[in-house]
Prior knowledge:
The chain is mainly α. It has helices at residues 2-11, 15-30, 32-36, 38-52, 78-108, 110-123, 126-174, 180-230, 237-263, 266-281, 292-299, 302-313, 323-326, 336-351, 357-376, 387-415, 425-433, 444-488, 497-545, 557-606, 612-658, 667-683, and strands at 316-317, 320-321, 327-328, 333-334.
Amino acid sequence: MDAQIAKTSQSLTSAAEMRETTQMLMQPNANWEKYLTPAPLSIAIMGELVFISSCDDFSINKNPPPTGYNYIKYPDSFRACLMQICNSGWHAFNEAHKNMDQIRIHTAMVPDYMKAAVKILFQGNDEVIETLLPNQLENIRTIADECVTLAEGVEKKYNDVINLIQELLEACINAKHFQGEELEKVKRKMKETEMKKKSAKVLNEQCKKAMEAMKKQMEDAQDEFKKGMDSLPTGWNMIAMDIARGFTETLTGIVNGATALITAPVRTACSAAEKVSTAYHSNKPQEEDVDKVSEMTIYSRSGEILTIIATLKQYVNDGNIDWHNLYDQKNKCTKTTWTESLFQRISEKLEEVPQCKLKKKALSLCNRGINICMELATYQPDKWWDERKTTQLIKKLQKLNDDALAFDCKSKATSGSPALTPKPPMMFKVESNSSGRQSASQKASENARFRIEQSREQLKQTRDSYEKCVEYMEKNQKELTDILVEMQNCKIKDIDFNTKIKMLVTGLDAMGRVKEQWEKMVHFFQIVSTLVKTSLSKTLHNFVTTADDGKKLSYTNRHFTKDQLYNQAFQASNIASLVHMISGTYTEVSSKYLMDKVSSLGRLMAMDKSRPEFLQERLNLQETCQAAQGSILQLVLKNKKEFERKTDARMAKIEGELIAILPAAPPQETERIKEIVQAGYKEGEFGEGEEDYY
Length: 694
């Protein structure tokens, strides 16, 4: 039964399946069509700025900054400033289209490099791996670094437009061109923009910290695994693979956590900026709130904690403890000393994280595990063991397991890690070739049921999140359309100074939303680059220098390092695949709905404003921008239906293939698992064939 469950789970978590699952889980916060909805409005506003620049001109240079302007080139002419904004915007949209298309082409090549890397790992001897693998990883790293440059270039272009609009608004305030309520509105918008800049800075710092934490955990993984295996009790060889699986889940969790940090809505970053500000101006200790990187680091340990608990649970059957197998006759002690040391190691790692409620919760799980191990260690074969004590111990262990399951659900909800994850290739191969048990845990069926329920709840939560995103878009759609219609009805004589300022403020907001996504794009590729650089340095070095274990384990340090190399390359490929989906969407939207408008804006800027063709071009630009706005929303709704179809198909496949091979479970057991999973996710709201590995 265990072998069949393992085989089916592996087929459900092939590289292709995991790429698609990652895209599904990240889609509510990573779908670019949502962020491109304001783009036609941005272009239409620039068209209007060209139109109104034919109005009466005036100087904004009455009260200039002492050091001069950083972005405005012609402060003596408001018209010239408006044209400068249009020109910068035109360049930004052109650069975005060109660079995103290059990113799409670059990321399309990553799966081929991943395929070559996997073949080398699977089929090559050590010398071939040492010689050829770095070339394939280097190819992925080069793509990541090139894409960072491309994304940063576009981010800078949009930033220039935003800074230019902001400086123009500040100049108008200083020149006292408007007063009263309108002045307050503009000041509020400027303050909001400044807050977004602070939040972007906080996000940048968080991403740097996240990548440092990710790099450190990847570098420490080999040493942690070796220490664990060196003290492994006799006869627990199969458990080596389960513990290695826990390490793998930790690394997967921290990479997914870093990715989720980037795709999180901007309100999360704004909240972070506010917390930083509060902490700075307050003397109270800020231990109640956990920063996102610490949260990511703590939650990444959830799979490892579950795995260690499973090593204890396997000795509990039918309300009794299997003392015969748990007691080490040779060393005259229970084998729980080793399990205790694993809990202790995680506790030590958690102590490095800043104090917070979440840390206390994770430490509590470890401490309860340590206490259970210490109680089991008091057992002696020649002394009578209290049955009541046995019952209490089993209850404590079951409660600890249930709490760890809920903690894992919260971890998955926060990081966006898939509920079902694959075993690394070498581990799966060694397990498949081992005689006897396929898993150290005798609770494979219970674990499979938990993962099915977790998958169901995870996909449901993702759909709910996507539904809310689309509802928010539809709500904003009318507001954006109303602005376009209002602009279209403006006659030149009706456009007073306040109307111009209103357009500038709206343009500032719309351009800001598009720029935020380019910032995220930069961080995506920084993660890919960090993953590959760590593989090329520390992990590959470990593979070259690690000798075979003297303990003759079926799953050795070299196996683990090989799997680690695979996982790092796979995670890099997974993120590249997510970006490829995003870049494909952007290029499609840009080609169909933006670039014609950008070209029209270019023509409008070059035309003589006194000719009738100018008014016709202006009208045409407004109408096509309004149509584009609606078309993008239709694309969003179409993608939403496709997303729902994919989530339904994924769940049907998991249930169809995995539930079919599981024995029937008592209704109370099914309900218990369901309650644990739902409680965890509610808190979280806010093959065999080598080709399967690439």
